[in-house]
Design a protein that fits this description.
Pfam families: IGPD. The chain is an alpha+beta fold and 202 residues long. Helix content is 33%, strand content 32%. The protein starts with a strand and ends in a 16-residue tail after the last helix.
Length: 202
């Protein structure tokens, strides 16, 4: 994994190649909302684009996987890579706000994402979608992506979809809220000396 924290830019790159997927991913916490996404899962491309734009990150993903089986391995491994680069890019986490709670509406849908950059991976997910599919995308893969992201980034992540009628809108609200919450939690607070923890380390 390559890490770049020079000039205050928190970013990391990773290459992950298995018998199921081949992924190159670069993530910058301090970005401008630019995404370059080339995967075999169009709906995930759309969600990652929203996440990047609303979080003001920079994200580049090139991913190929065994989608002739299904999208599971590709979605899961991109979540793993994004989580690992996020963790590495944040380094010692000095000065970050650490916590965030964000509500995002998408028409009739309302999602909430709560984050603690805690170095204690935990994931809670409360979402019931009207449809098991959005196009060719299986909605249960949202859980798989978010869980692997939280696990590999070593963050506490709570995702709640309070209500909605359109599955696309509900998932879109989740990814927008994820971007905005992560942007807030990773932002630097000039009042913070060291890390925001009485333990002295995160």
């Amino acid at each position: 994994m390559e890490i770049n924290q020079a000039n205050g830019t928190r970013s990391a790159s990773i290459t992950r190649k298995t018998n199921e997927t081949d992924i190159q991913l670069t993530f910058s916490v301090d970005g401008t909302g630019v995404s370059e996404l080339e995967t075999d899962v169009p709906f995930l491309n759309h969600m990652l684009d929203l996440f990047t734009k609303h979080g003001q990150f920079d994200l580049k993903v090139q991913a190929r996987g065994d989608i002739e089986i299904d999208d599971h391995h590709t979605v899961e491994d991109i979540g793993i890579c994004l989580g690992q680069t996020l963790r590495e890019a944040l380094g010692d986490k000095k000065g970050i706000k650490r916590y965030a709670s964000v509500f995002v509406p998408m028409d009739e849908a309302l999602a909430q994402v709560v984050i603690d950059i805690s170095n204690r991976p935990h994931f809670e997910y409360r979402a019931e979608y009207p449809s098991a599919q959005v196009g060719s995308f299986t909605t249960e893969l949202v859980h798989e992506f978010l869980w692997k992201l939280a696990l590999e980034a070593r963050i506490t992540l709570h995702v709640i979809v309070h209500y909605g009628q359109n599955t696309h809108h509900m998932i879109e609200a989740v990814f927008k809220a994820l971007g905005r919450a992560l942007d807030e939690a990773t932002s630097i607070d000039p009042r913070v000396t060291g890390v925001p923890s009485t333990k002295g380390v995160l």
